[in-house]
Design a protein that fits this description.
There is one protein chain. By secondary structure, the protein is of the alpha/beta class. The chain contains 18 helices and 14 strands. Helix 7 crosses helix 18. The longest helix is centred in the C-terminal third of the chain and has 17 residues. It binds adenosine-5'-diphosphate (ADP) and magnesium ion. The site of magnesium ion (MG) has 4 residues, from helix 7.
């Protein structure tokens, strides 16, 4: 299970970059940096991302900070540690007065770091306040497959990734089929849903790790599956808040939570993206689709899913024809690094009809199997220090 320390920076991009830069030099722990531009949006971010520490850029007015800290403490089982970052510029070239520091402490600021933040100071502050606590509060990694177009391979890659992870991690992996309008994951795995995501949503008030596990279907490879609702009427019972509840329990109950989605950027998709450690944007190598993916990347950025959480996944869902873009073409058009390239493989089409997951049949040396193995190895690596904005 991932044991990186999540640090939410509330304030300017410059402060987030500073913290990110020094985080890389902190040897004692892996730090994942996220940012929220102001306290108002940081409250929401703290609820979904559950940071271990919050570094707040201190201004001269502490009123908002009082309310924010109270909100943090009321919402979490273990409230994150609040650290104030101050710079002399804010205090007219002086150090903050002791009256100010006392007032900040009353607003539940537990420690202070002076800007520019140094790696030694950051490491010390985190050790002092988090110590052994982080290791015991580890959370699973949420991997969501998204696109603004259907038929590009989201479900294929979600099922394949989940199966490949289950090969090593068995029933510590869950696949949640949140493609609410047309969920096919269970059938791709030849499973007959007796319970679905709707049951988890209906039980949300008493949903805990044990109950969630009970509501999943189990595949022979060990993988647990929370199937999609059986029809649109059923799907209508799910909203963003209830799905968020399911995801937050899932993240505690499993090491890996793979989520398949429907190509629509509604509040459900936004709730999923809020949780995603890896928002895998699936693109196919055709000009219209690559052009179509550009605005999606832009929207993700504005939703607070920064580049540190985005993975660009190029999937050859069709055989190569004249004019098929190369990975380099796609990278140039998107102005982004491609994180994984999946080749076209007829075996996937056959597997669809047999309900035998292709990921369990292929080796890891060639073609699709090789791409999948590389992709999954990357996902299993601890998250490094990445900056991602958690609110626009
Ligand atoms: N790499 C691939 N090689 C061959 N066929 C693929 C590949 N990726 C997807 N497909 C096929 O493309 C079709 C659409 O894939 P699907 O996963 O259902 O897309 P989405 O979930 O994005 O709508 C399916 O028939 C699937 O088998
Ligand atoms: Mg699909």
């Amino acid at each position: 299970m991932d044991k990186s320390t999540v640090v939410l920076v509330v304030g300017s991009e410059a402060l987030a970059q500073e913290v990110e830069a020094v985080s890389a030099a902190v040897k004692s722990r892996t730090i994942q940096v996220q940012r929220s531009p102001d306290l108002r949006r940081a409250g929401e971010a703290a609820r979904t991302r559950r940071p271990d520490a919050v570094i707040v850029e201190l201004g001269r007015d502490l009123r908002e900070l009082h309310a924010f800290a109270a909100e943090l403490e009321s919402g979490a089982d273990v409230a994150p540690v609040v650290v104030g970052a101050w710079s002399r510029e804010t205090f007219l070239g002086e150090d903050p007065s002791s009256a100010y520091l006392i007032e900040a402490t009353r607003a539940r600021v537990r420690d202070f770091v002076r800007r520019p933040v140094s790696s030694t100071e950051l490491a010390e502050v985190l050790e002092r306040h988090l110590g052994a606590r982080v290791a015991s509060r580890a959370q699973g990694r949420v991997i969501a497959f998204v696109s603004n177009k259907g038929g590009v391979g989201k479900s294929t890659l979600a099922v394949s990734t989940a199966c490949a992870l289950a090969k090593t991690h068995g029933d510590r992996v869950v696949l949640i089929d949140a493609s609410l309008q047309l969920g096919l994951c269970a059938s791709m795995l030849d499973l007959e849903p007796t319970t679905t995501l709707v049951d988890a949503v209906m039980q949300q008030d008493r949903l805990d790790e044990t109950l969630l596990r009970e509501l999943t279907l189990q595949h022979a490879c060990g993988l647990r599956v929370l199937a999609a609702p059986k029809d649109a009427m059923d799907a209508a019972r799910i909203d963003d808040a209830s799905l968020a509840r399911v995801l937050s329990v899932a993240r505690r109950a499993f090491d890996y939570v793979v989520v398949d989605t429907f190509p629509l950027l509604d509040s459900i998709a936004v709730a999923i993206l809020d949780f995603a450690d890896d928002a895998c944007v699936v693109v196919t190598p055709t000009v219209p689709h690559v052009l179509g993916a550009l605005p999606l990347l832009d929207v993700l950025e504005r939703l607070g899913v920064g580049r540190g959480r985005q993975r660009i996944v190029l999937n050859h869902s069709h055989p190569r024809v004249a004019g098929t873009l190369t990975p380099e073409d796609v990278a140039t058009r998107l102005q982004r690094r491609i994180d994984a390239v999946f080749p076209f493989d007829k075996g996937l089409l056959v597997a669809q009809n047999t309900g035998e997951p292709y990921a369990l049949a292929v080796g890891r040396l060639f073609g699709f199997g090789r791409a999948l193995a590389g992709f999954v190895d990357e996902l299993a690596r601890p998250r490094g220090a990445v900056t991602s904005d958690v609110a626009p």
